[in-house]
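To assess whether ligand presence alters the predicted conformation, the chain was also submitted together with zinc ion. Input:
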Amino acid sequence: MRIIWSGLVNRLCAAGVQLREQIDDDYPDRDRKSDGWIADARHIAKGNSDHIPANGIVRAIDIDSDLAAHKEEAYALVEKIRKCAKRGDKRIKYIIYDGKIMSPILGWKRRKYSGPNPHRSHFHISFTTLGDKDSSYFDLEGDKNERPKKDGRKLGKDIPSDSTSDLPSGGIRPGCNCQCSSRISLA
Ligand SMILES: [Zn+2]
């Protein structure tokens, strides 16, 4: 999709298009109300966000967490994306969902996200510049033989919130709501 904004033709990075297509394939009837990609003008002034085009490229998508017939799978889907990144897909920069941020910091461990918008209606995925043109398939299933860790209770355990000060530069900042309110619908 291309959209004219500030006189420039902007597009979503190739990795963002690809990941969204894979999610659409898996959940064709999902709710898309909270989907988004490009920041609206109201959020541009607020500064840093991967939703703001950089040289015509937007490097973030929001995916509505209502997967319709598969509502219970939102966590599992986020977990698949997180594991894909952890296995080495460096196109994924960070993920935010339900008060947690996941990034290369601490090896993609879930950490507490302290921004004012906890991201429950949607999950946010930012991409690195490696995803600008790389539209290869995201290996979300991974190793089929992978077994769930026995100590699943530690999954999602918080670390001190001051550890969020190491957010990737150019991305969101603690206390900033990530300008995730890009609500341009994806027809
Ligand atoms: Zn977002």
